[in-house]
Amino acid sequence: MQQKKKKNSKALVYALLAMGAVVVLYSLIFKLYRWQHYLICLGVALLVGRVVYIMAQGLDTSKDAPAQQQIPKTGDAAADSLVEKGQEMLSQIRQENALIPDAELTAQMDQLDDVANRIFHTVAEQPGKAPQIRRFMDYYLPTTLKMLQGYRKMDERQVSGQEAQETRAQIRRAMDVVLKAFDKQLNALYHDDMLDLSTDIDVMETMLRQDGLVDSGIKGEQAGQ
């Protein structure tokens, strides 16, 4: 929220500077003899200032803005296509979030962005896991984007009233559920890996006991601490 305000403030400063520069240049090139000349100069300055303001809002000049890490290609066409599609949806979610002046929702979306990126990085590291996120890609992520778009449209059109407030609150509650679901999706991707590690530990414990190197094994040692 604070970053959005800083970005808008910087955009306004850039716009004012641009307007001032236009006025100076215009007065040097065209002599201002009549009031109509002043109106034309003001109109040109306002137009340039508006363009600069819009352009400056689209630029992230904040040093604190998190850089989006590029996910490398895997060479697996299906996995790469899935990750690329997911990254595009995440980009749209960020754009929608930037237009919504709601601190609570912004915090939720920042967490969602982090978890979703970790999911895609996991698939990029292990392309064989791509089928496990099919439901995540086909439904959960698009639905999240749809909810954000609906929230943003209500704000843009200044929709008020009890029903609108309840809908906004419902979307915020739904985002909490989505965040938990995303966390579970990430954990599910590592489920088999954790089982493999647990099996490796069991095998190593058995071998250590057989060789007389330990008495209770790794898990037993940990439980006794």
Helix content: over 70%
- Largest sheet at a glance? none
Order of helices and strands: HHHHHHHH
Coarse structural class? mainly alpha
How much of the sequence is in beta strands?
under 5%
| Number of continuous helical runs | 8
Q: Which of globular, elongated, flat, extended, rod-shaped describes the shape?
A: elongated
- As residue ranges, the low-confidence spans are 59-67
**CA radius of gyration:** 27 Å
What's the mean pLDDT score?
A: 78
- Number of DSSP E strands: 0
Termini gap: 46 Å
Question: What's a concise summary of this model?
Answer:
The chain is mostly helical and 225 residues long.
Structural commentary:
This protein has helices at residues 2-29, 35-58, 77-98, 103-125, 134-156, 162-189, 191-210, 217-224. It is mainly α and 225 residues long. The protein is elongated.
Give the secondary structure arrangement, pairings included.
Elements: H1 2-29, H2 35-58, H3 77-98, H4 103-125, H5 134-156, H6 162-189, H7 191-210, H8 217-224
What keywords describe this structure?
225 residues; mainly alpha; 8 helices; elongated
